[in-house]
Amino acid sequence: MDLLRLAVLVAALAAGGGWWGGRGAEASIHTYDREPFREVGNAFLLSGGSEGIVADGADPAAPASSFIKFVNVTFWRTSEAAESHAKMAHSTGLVQAILFEAADRDNIGGSAYGGQRSICCTPDLAKLEGCKQGEVIKRPSSDDPDWPVVLDTHFSANYLSVKLEDEEVHITKTGMYNLFFISCDPKLRGLTMSGKTVWRNPDGYLPGRMAPLMKFYVLMSLAYLLVMVVWFSQYIRFWRDILPIQNWITLVIALGLFEMTLWYFEYLNFNSSGVRPVGITTWVVTVGAIRKTISRLLILSISMGYGVVRPTLGGLTSKVLLLGLTYFLASEMLDIAENVGTINDISGKAKLFLVLPDAFLDAFLILWIFTSLSRTLEKLQARRSSVKLDIYRKFTNALAVSVIASVAWIGYEVYFKATDPFSERWQSAWIITAFWDVLAFVLLVVICYLWAPSQSSQRYAYSGEAADDDDEESQSLTKGTDGEVGMVKIDKDRSAGVSHAFSLDDETEEDKRE
Fold first, then answer.
1. Nearest-angstrom CA–CA distance, 42 and 183
2. Does the keyword Signal apply (predicted)?
């Protein structure tokens, strides 16, 4: 089936949705705890962070509401490097903090005679570029000659450490800003750094790419609340006719509302404090993993005809639960890796070995869902259950549309990231994350519409299949010689057919196939 192959592709790629553009777990207060510098070309380098910052447009003389502040930033060199200098020496090692906008990245570094690009100035580059040997090569920005910003810190004598003066850089232009700490001194091998930097936007500490998501989660919470009110009012009204599958739908709606609300308050706390407590973020991620797992199992159970063409899942129950538990663990691990502990506004660093299990399980789930749907449709068609068949056809169409939408959106994600490697379009990146939440919500609304509680809910249940389905069709078929005898005969035939359809041998064989 082409649709099944398409579904597998969707799952394999969609599982990496966070990989290409997930929520991200950036912190606006970047803390460094003896972070080591790594050797890159002819320099020792440490990334201090990368975030989108919106300019406040305020008077430069007024207190800045958009800024990057350096607090207690201290550099530590090895004892061997310190002891190689005399006690009375003045400058015994230079470390530079360089802050620049992503659009000005080509203004950092240079190459002599078309050779390999260097970060630090070499004798040849000093002649060509006019840079100072032993320092980072930089050229002024075309928009602002004072940028990139470079802060110099010199070690003195044979001291092991040196502290960068606390500075606050006012951001006057909206953009994606990158901070690097660089040393061009070969004697400073093994350099480490501690301290913190504070990155702030006009409305709070939320990184610019994440700020729109806080408003988005408010809207999603209200949308889930509206669905909950409408659904629960029907649920209470027809509580005597509620089907088991409708109880699971109620749980998914509640979990969706809970998750969106938690995300909002988690972002609100982050925006006001600048940090994301690991415990709170882990709790929010766990609720989301539970919601995604139950949602998938709900769709799988509906596709199998639970409560419609079969009273229970039978021998498949343990397999479905095992798959659900495995998916929850894989999803939880991936979401924690993406949302807990990272500090930059360029997401997409999830480990491949966490993405692949999640992708494989999603692919397997979709394959199982469409296979089960096909069998359920065949059973309903064979029994001429027109009402149930119509519902399942609409459900199948909704799933097919969601698959097509997912494929199209994944293509857009790939294009978005491929054409924006430095996250310069960070202001619209939040849409990547928002789409998947909206798609899950729309699919849930479709399920709520098709299986809404009503006084005729029991007509769609398995228990009423033999007697209640298409009564008018039954009566028309038996109309003629002896109505009562004809009706009894058809009822017996139907009962025999249902009994045969759910015999132990048939169920066991179906379990083996599925």
1. 9
2. yes
Residue 115 has a pLDDT of: 63
> Which residues lie closer than 8 Å to 222 by C-beta, 6 or more apart?
none
Q: Which two tokens stand for residue 213?
A: 């998501």
Q: How do residues 91-123 score in pLDDT, each as one tens digit?
A: 888 999 999 998 888 888 877 656 677 888 888
Q: State the pLDDT at residue 63.
A: 59
What Å distances lie between residue 27 and 36, 90, 501, CA to CA? 20, 37, 57
State how far the Cα of 301 lies from the Cα of 245, in Å rounded to an integer: 8
Q: Which of 94, 95, 93 is nearest to 32 (CA)?
A: 95
Question: Could you tell me if residue 493 is left (phi over 0), alpha (psi between -120 and 50 degrees) or otherwise beta?
Answer: alpha
* Phi then psi dihedrals of residue 130, to 5 deg: 75, 20
Domains of the chain in start order, with CATH, are 29-200 (no CATH), 208-463 (1.20.1070)
For 86-135, the three-class secondary structure string (H helix, E strand, C coil) is: CCCCCCCCEEEEEEEEHHHHHHECECCCCCCCECECCHHHHHHHCCCCCC
Strand, helix or coil for residue 138: strand
| Three-class secondary structure of residue 225 per DSSP | helix
Helix (H, G, I), strand (E, B) or coil at 443: helix
d(CA 343, CA 340): 9
Regions in the chain scoring below 50 on pLDDT: 1-27, 343-350, 463-514
| Strand order across the 149-154 sheet | 38-40, 43-53, 175-183, 94-101, 149-154
Q: What is the tens place of the pLDDT at every residue in 134-158? A: 888 888 888 888 899 999 999 988 8
pLDDT of residue 487: 32
- The residue behind tokens 């001194």 is 185
DSSP state letter for 276: -
pLDDT of residue 16: 41
* C-alpha dist (Å) from residue 234 to 140, 224, 255, 400: 65, 15, 18, 28
Residue 499 pLDDT? 37
d(CA 462, CA 309): 6
